[in-house]
């Protein structure tokens, strides 16, 4: 075996009591994918056991990539919890350290509060990628306070219940996050208005290359692609209504002036009847 790198993604055959490796230091693993060259089986086996033992949740935990630094094997671990009926994020205590990718697609999650409140997802798990497609999340505003949001690589939240996004937060994230590769907001229920054209559309066009499935970022009611929304169609000025407002103001001013004139005439009449005084302007003529 020592001259043929092996697939070590499955521990079953490696741990078989009937198997004895004659050259463990020279027997190499070609899978999981690795950096530069195949790794010694005893190092990979130790890492695989660690990931398996730390995976204490109803999900599959797999190593997607391994590399060696200072003679120590490291891994990028993917935790796949898709379609497992989760109502909330799994406890980070039950996930392998580190967990590079957490896949929670096709669940019943309605909020990101738990994820934001527990800093262990970022500080201990060092999570880089999060997939939340096909859940029931209605807002990501809370991510403004999350350190993770300013350091992630990939974030996907397709087909949820988002009606709007905090554009100013996303703008800050895209400016500050040097690791960011892609964010996918497609197929949500975005409410479109003049503000959408002046802010969300501008942001989408600015970062087109980092927006996943941008052609599916659409207005929920009209199905129009937000990146193609036109200012003149969504930010119309109602000239008729504006004219009516002006006429209303003129009418109010005229009404006030008429009342003032009538009051002045009545006052002059009363002054003449009681004191015999003519109006000032008449007395000067």
From TrEMBL:
Transmembrane regions: 246-267
InterPro entries: LRR_dom_sf (IPR032675), SLRP (IPR050333)
Gene3D superfamilies associated with the record: Ribonuclease Inhibitor
Keyword Transmembrane helix among record annotations: yes
Keyword field: Leucine-rich repeat, Membrane, Repeat, Transmembrane, Transmembrane helix
Cellular component terms per the entry's GO annotation: extracellular space
Family annotation (SUPFAM superfamilies): L domain-like (SSF52058)
Name of the protein this chain belongs to: Protein halfway
